[in-house]
Amino acid sequence: MKRTSRQYGLICMLLGGATTALATDISFNGFANFTAGEVVGGSNQGSHLQYQCPCFVSNYEYGGIYQHTGVDVAQESMMGLQATAKVDDKLSAILQVDARGLNGYQPSVDWAYASYQLNDTFTVQVGRKRLPWYMYSDYNYVGYAYIWVRPPVDLYGWEVYSYDGVNLQYNNAWGDWAVYSNTWAGNQSSLNAPGLTQVYNGYATDTSWRDIIGSSLDVSNEYVHLRAMYMQNKVYQGAQNPGNSATQTAATPDTPIQNAQFQQALGFAANIDYKSFLLRSEYNIVRRPQMGYIAPSGLLGVGYRVDDVTGMYTYSRYRESKSWLYTQPQRDSTRALTLRWDFRPSMDLKLQYDMFVDHSQFPFLGDSKLVTTSFDMVF
Description:
Strand content: over 45%
Shape: globular
């Protein structure tokens, strides 16, 4: 368990949760993932939108897609730098800038918030943060923080991933258990959302999630980490009409999806690290009752660690229900074999083989097989 504790400490540093900086000092932490992947097979030999398939979606949030065109190093390679300005023992500000190969390494702000510690157990934060509706939301792109090359995209695959608002955190210890809860509220709009525009539609599509309210509870000890989450919000979505130069944006409710669609999300996760044995599991269900839309997704991974090498087998799947509006639901699953080698402190090498199966009645991507290798580090 020594390596697990060391990794956890590094992750906390990266997220601004631990710093020894003096008052008004600024400290920096960062991470980098250098990833190369190639689609080596699949059933769909045609094309999807402008892509040459078989294809593998590596990231719905930023529209990352591996095509059957050889080795690609741009889809998932990225760097991040986080600055923490500590004003005093209670007040601090955090800014994180990321640069992704997908965007030609143009910098973008993923985190920007102020944090004030009310007392020993409660902290309030205001600004832009990632939506914490997954187990790995806070460090979704810090490859060093988990076994896989990427968290399984059958589950980690929604187009809105951050919010502008406020959250209240609770941290305490109950006996041998660490207890953490987070409650958040805010809004977020994504104009020309990559997941919708580049993966599904092929034309500019905007989305806005408003009146977001959510809460999560994590309890953990030396071996077990359990999590539960609930979130609700209103969804607006608009798309540019391919035959009309006028763009309907999600900034107003006058969109193809009439007014707001109420959305609910429930999530549960359980992780076990016992001696050399590892178990990773997570389940999420999203509902839009007015549309008759239900989308459950989940993952189950089993692994074993020998010294600095960890192997894991993971099964994940996403399954939309058929309804009066969703007559062609998306349904897919992925089996992944992962090998991770922690060859130096704060660094790892990974090799992963993904076997994606498109179970949809009308496949849009088809089956695919992807080989990926990644070098991850935190500093």
